[in-house]
Specification:
The complex is a heterodimer.
Chain A (H helix, E strand, L loop, with lengths): L4 H29 L14 H41 L3 H10 L1 H4 L2 H12 L3 H4 L2 H26 L2 H10 L4 H30 L2 H6 L7 H11 L2 H32 L2
Helix pairs in contact in A: 1-12, 2-7, 2-9, 2-11, 2-12, 7-9, 7-12, 8-9, 9-12, 11-12
Chain B lengths: L2 H31 L8 H7 L1 H34 L5 H9 L6 H12 L4 H5 L10 H26 L2 H9 L4 H30 L2 H6 L6 H10 L4 H25 L9
Helix pairs in contact in B: 1-12, 3-7, 3-9, 5-7, 7-9, 8-9, 9-12, 11-12
The chains are: A mainly alpha, B mainly alpha.
Chain lengths: 263, 267
Amino acid sequence: MRLTLPRLLQLAVTLLTAAFLIVPAIQSILAGLTVNYFRGLSSGFTLRWVGEVWRLYADSILLSMGLAVACLGVTLVIGVPAAYALAKNPGRLSRILEEFISLPLAVPGLALALALLQLYGSMTGFRTSWTFILVGHVLYTLPFMVRSVLAVLMAMDLKSLEESAATLGASTVTRFRTIVVPNAMPGILAGALTVVTLSIGEFNLTWMLHTPYLKTLPVGLADSYASMRLEIASAYTLVFFVMIVPLLMAMQWATDRAQRISR
Amino acid sequence: MANRTFIGLCLLPLAVFSLAFLALPLVRLVMASSEGTEGWGIYLQILQTPRYLQTLLQTVLVSLAVSVVALAISTTAGLFLARNRFPGRGALLSVLTLPLAFPGVVVGFLIILLGGRQGLFNTLLPGHVVFAYSLLGLFLGYLYFSIPRVLLTVMAATEKLDPALEEAARTLGASPYRVVFDVILPGLAPSLVAAGAIAFATAMGAFGTAFTLATDIDVLPMVIYTEFTLSANIAMAAALSVLLGLATWVLLLLARSFAGATVAAGG
């Protein structure tokens, strides 16, 4: 790479932007591990704050993990067969349906949460159970699962594969199980990792849907930012990073792989 | 089982779920907006109340500023990363896309670490440099989560450009600037419009970041939230939500008709 003036300027912008994104993240990691952030790093490092976070917010962290797994289960059961049906009938109606279920990507979570509250807020049993939050998470993540699987299914020659299997006597259910699902696996994997990553980090819907007894990890984060000392808030953010960053990297890897296949 | 029946069964769970938890709640939300004392006139009331109008204007202006700056920064960085190979490129790219999975509240907290009372700028610089809770802080927060989304769109679009066009321009004697402004940018234009629209729509609806930073700033999501929780003005909260949802949805629809990919809204 030859360094010319325009290149240098571009490099400068790129590096400054990277600094803007990474410096506060590093600050939060350091603040979560120092004895007293106000006095600075010279006060020494400690794991005390991480321990405090576990003591205060273990429930939130575990709830978020459970929600993410449940959300993955529901999106798999709803999303994979639906993507198959949409791939088999690529007509106008399918486009409209796909467009409709993608609404939660465009409409802000706050508005969706208000809509859910308006309709189901008075059903106390449902409103106060964890399944209410689950509904919000499924609503938000489902389009990612459907689109991810659909993209892979549309790229392969589903028709010939299924026809050959049918001439050999495979029933519709057998074909779905032994041909469609295995071939769609890269899309399912990418969709699954996206669903889990987004569910663990979801705040906009969850803040409106949660109850004081059911706080997810990001809701707990907002709580700690408002009421805890900076070190605890930072340590909690650190715990979140440790969970989300590997997931994000796996998600990007799986999405790239699925996109290479569907090209 | 017959083929058609099986496909129908495959769609059934999706149909039931989206009807119960998407279609009906949205209808209910629209209805709820008319159940105040003004009826449907509430939408007129929004336009006649200075506070709501100012909120709308402020939200649009901040979002617009974020989109323009995010486009400028991300196009510069995106073109650089797409066209050059150098050691550390992968790491740089990872850093620039890292915030994709950060919820808005975390972004807000990171801005507080930069510009809050115990923030980096206030400790390093003399005098009181506290900007986290101002309009500038909100702008930076929105910028933080917009940059990765726009960057990815720009890079994907750059990879699809035909390098032969640039070579042709160069052999015909065009300067590097002319190549950028006459060949690369026009080629990227549809994707840039789409990416800008995504950034704008995301900023308009960003709740988490506003929730941590905009305690004193009226932006639309915060006003909806306070109308709903503090004033218990359900009809107004619903009407503003309908307005916001409609605006972001139409915008993203237009953007998609310009150019494919959409990256998740959030923040």
